[in-house]
Amino acid sequence: MDGKAGAVMQAILHDYWRSSASYRVRIGLNLLGLPYRSVSVDLLGGDQRGADYLARNPQGLVPALEIDGVILTQSLAILEYLNETHAAGWLGSASLEKARIRALAYAIAMEVHPVCNLRVARYAVSLGGTTLEDWMKHFIRDGLADFEAMLAQNRRPSQYCHGGVVSLADICLVPQVYNATRWNVDMAEFPKTAAIAARLEILEAFADAHPDRASPQS
Question: From the Swiss-Prot or TrEMBL record, what is one GO molecular function term (predicted)?
Answer without folding.
Answer: glutathione transferase activity
